[in-house]
Design goal:
Helix content is about 35%, strand content about 30%. It has about 110 residues and is α+β, with helices and mostly antiparallel strands. The longest helix has 26 residues, at about 5-30.
């Protein structure tokens, strides 16, 4: 497990990158909006379906995504220098992109 200061630095970096991608993609598609409330990221959909929530969990050094009635817990992979879902190996941004595509039923959603 990485130490807390490394977790905070890397999670801040990863979440800021995701935030910028969500803002860009949300503006382009119009299908969802992004909100940031004290470090808790919310992806809110135009069709009023349940939102996605992305949040760092510092005590256990993970980033969690709550989406589609499932909790995804991403660990920091030092080799990849990214937060990844152990089960699939997907990095934070790619996993979020896949979840958005599935939820919106739109394979063209891209998180740059």
């Amino acid at each position: 497990m990485i130490d807390e200061s490394t977790f905070r630095r890397e999670s801040d970096r990863a979440l800021e990158s995701l935030k910028q991608s969500l803002i860009t993609s949300g503006d382009a598609s119009g299908a969802f909006e992004f909100e940031d409330n004290n470090g808790v990221m919310n992806i809110i959909f135009e069709n009023e379906s349940p939102k996605f929530v992305v949040t760092p969990n510092t005590p256990i050094r993970q980033i969690w995504i709550s989406a589609q009635a499932t909790s995804y817990k991403l660990d920091y992979d030092e080799t990849a220098q990214a937060f990844v879902l152990p089960k699939t190996g997907e990095a934070l941004k790619l996993l979020t992109q896949r979840l958005l595509r599935e939820h919106l039923q739109d394979p063209t959603v891209v998180l740059p």
